Amino acid sequence: MFGDRVKKERILRQMTQKELSELLGVSPSTVGMYEQNRRQPDSDTIIKLSEIFNVSTDYLLGRTDIKNPSDEISNAVEDDPELIEFWNELKEREDLQLLFKQTKNLSPKDIKQIIRIIKAIEDEEDMLDQ
Q1: In sequence order, which ranges of the chain are alpha helices (DSSP H)?
Q2: pLDDT at residue 3, rounded to an integer
């Protein structure tokens, strides 16, 4: 599972094993062994892979099919144009990265409620700044 996901993400980015190996600081054959599930990387390398591919470590390890926690939030608010627009602005903010990690055990309804609360707070702060 892990190797399949690494290979899939590498190919999606049109990256060679050599290019990925240079980013990771390992040999191309090591990347090949990861992709063939013949070798497991250490935790630091798994974290590097998740950063390179912009996916969660849980996704790489096969613990979830959601590539990135922000995708889960996007799915939860997709039926509300105002919230999806607000979420698209929010997900770029580093100060809210913790939010992504906290949503993995929440229902879409709960996620939507949290985004509404954050939007209300942001709207109120904007009004106070004027």
Answers
A1: 2-12, 17-24, 28-35, 43-53, 57-60, 69-77, 81-90, 97-102, 108-129
A2: 94
What tokens appear for 9 in the block? 């993400």
One domain, residues 47 and 6: yes
pTM: 0.61
Count how many domains the chain has.
Answer: 2
CA terminus-to-terminus distance, the chain: 52
Q: Are residues 74 and 125 in the same domain?
A: yes
List of the chain residues with pLDDT < 50: none
- Evaluate whether 69 touches 100 at the Cβ level (below 8 Å): yes
Q: Are residues 8 and 50 in the same domain?
A: yes
| pLDDT tens, position by position, 78-96 | 888 888 888 877 777 776 6
Own/partner pairs, 88-92, CB within 8 angstroms, 24+ separation: 90/115, 90/118
If one counts every other C-beta atom within 10 angstroms of the C-beta of residue 111, the result is: 21
Which CATH number belongs to the domain containing residue 6 in this structure? Answer: 1.10.260.40
User: What pLDDT does 83 receive?
Assistant: 83
